[in-house]
Design brief:
Beta-lactamase Inhibitory Protein, Chain:B, domain 1, 4-stranded antiparallel beta sheet
């Protein structure tokens, strides 16, 4: 019995730590401020961006994460001269639509 409890606790811990890597809250996004450095953004977002773009002397980072409703969102962070100058976040509509379709197929 003791072995089962320890195993269950270990599995729970692993699930919680893995799920937090791709998870973002509105509080996390509120912590990103104009003037932050890329290192500070990495800390708030818990890792490197999924995609990076360079356009006209500006850099844009794209994160694809899950929100508290378990929906995929896209977060775009714009840098100029090594500092945050803009942020945008919105639902990943296409990905969420595919998730719903996959779920419906599994139910059948």
């Amino acid at each position: 019995m003791k072995k089962k409890i320890i195993s269950l606790l270990l599995i729970s811990f692993l699930c919680i730590s893995c799920s937090s890597l791709g998870f973002v809250t509105s509080r996390s996004l509120q912590n990103i401020q104009n003037g932050m450095t890329p290192q500070e953004v990495n800390t708030v977002m818990k890792g490197s961006p999924d995609y990076r773009r360079f356009v006209s002397g500006r850099e844009q980072w794209e994160y694809r994460r899950y929100n508290t409703n378990n929906e995929r969102i896209i977060v775009l962070i714009n840098f100029y001269d090594g500092h945050v100058v803009g942020l945008d976040s919105f639902p990943d509509v296409e990905s969420n639509r595919q998730d719903i379709q996959t779920h419906r197929l599994r139910e059948k």
